[in-house]
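Reposting from the mailing list since nobody answered there.

I have sequence plus structure tokens for a pair of proteins and want to know whether others read the tokens the same way I do. The first protein:
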Amino acid sequence: MIETRKLTKRYGDLIAVNQIDLKLDEGDVFGFIGPNGSGKTTTMRMIATLLNPDYGEAYVCGKSIYTEPEEIRRLVGFMPDFFGVYDDMTVLEYLEFFAAAYRVNGPQRRKVCEEKLELVDMTFKRDAMVNQLSRGQTQRVGLARVLLHEPQVLLLDEPASGLDPRARIEIRNLLKRLGELNKTVIVSSHILPELADVCTRVGMIEKGNLIVDGHVDEVMRKARRKTLLQIRVGADTEKAAALLESSDHVTSVSIEKGVIHVTLKENVLDYSDLPVMLIESGFRLTMFREEEINLETAFMELTKGLVQ
């Protein structure tokens, strides 16, 4: 659905996007992660044919951004970080205005607008003035707008930016629903927890370079160089910790609030001998689990903190 080859954009001596190769299939929800100024928006604008690259190629649904930009615009819904609204329109009038621009005509226009309002849970605001909506409500109406022409590809630039916690949860739930509709979605953000639950794939961009690209589980595994375990025993916690520390697989052991935290050596994937060792030594295990790594930790492990 989306493919880029060596996609590059320069501004003078600054390389905003540096030879990005990306391939997304139908139904992929791709989390585009990076700090402000890393090249996320520039990449999305080139894919949307709103900005010409200096080098490289991009295809959307098999169509080139150079030779078929108008066709691509019919297939893409692009939602920028900030967008203007009209002061003298209701929410429904606002959507009908854009539906007309997308050539959705006749009785079908009102039906489509009502359907999109229902999809983003904004039917209750259909008659409200669009300039009086909250930031979160405005974002949802903006999402309804880019869905009016049934795009196969969605490019959402920081859709959760500036939202309060409840509004961010609502946007996250909307992204999940879009994934269920088999649309290909690129959603950029620097708020990492917002993407972990909704994306099937993530890419991390730093100083214009795509340094990580893969399925969420793969990225997590790549970020985890050492496995961390959390263990709790029924009694004699300190003795159990000393026993674990004697294992050849273990580099460090600490105790915090009755939980033993064990760090394994790099590339140790099989630690099944540890619970066996504890049980055979007479300890009763009440908890034994691998500490989960989150997307934020993965980002910190895999990036260097570089900015343009």
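The second protein, same order (residues first, tokens after):
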Amino acid sequence: MQDHQQHHSLAALIRSDPRYQYLDASITLFIVVLLISNIIATKFFAIGPLRVSAGQLVFPITYIFGDIFTEVYGYSASRRAIWLGFFASFILAALSYIAVVIPPAPEYKDQTAFSTIFRPVGRIVVASLLAYWCGEFANSFTLAKLKLLTKGKYLWTRTIGSTVVGQAVDTTVVMFAAFYGMRPVGIILRLIVAGYLIKVAYETLMTPLTYAIVNFLKRTEGVDYFDYQTNFSPFATTES
């Protein structure tokens, strides 16, 4: 009986919502961007004294998606996207590990290079999932509450304000979890500062595009959700 209830709860968290035309496609794009950011995160480059992970070039887009989900469809839609992204990332980590440890064929000469690229992916994904839990839920919760506080006005205060909160948590957690012991602490701190500034600036600059997408979805989907009675637990299976 308990196993059946757990299965039902899981299905409720990830099932499609037939009320909306664009939600599933948007969640799919969100997951693709999330996985790409995890794969390319091992490379970092210099911008003056700052050090920037390649993953930080695309990862902020996931927060823009999170803002759009919460603003248009409500916190429960964002929660579903986060869970689907969580499972997809877990599969990426598991398969990356398996692909690395499988003994290569004698004629395959690129095992060292392959391992260099993909061996850290598992750790990065695990770190990303930990940060993702903290940061994405903090981001969506902040935006939902700010929407109620502003009565649906001043979208820019919500998109930027939620990013300031969510990315501070996410960037700190993911950098230490992913690189501690692999990189000097000084480098990690520079990655945190650079990543946080880039992500907040990214979100700020993308505000006009976020406005356009949000307005399009609200108009075409016929929805503008307010989380007045929402259960904000990550494990809730209903909107309220």
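Reply #1 (J.P.):
I read it the same way you do. The first helix runs from residue 2 to 14.
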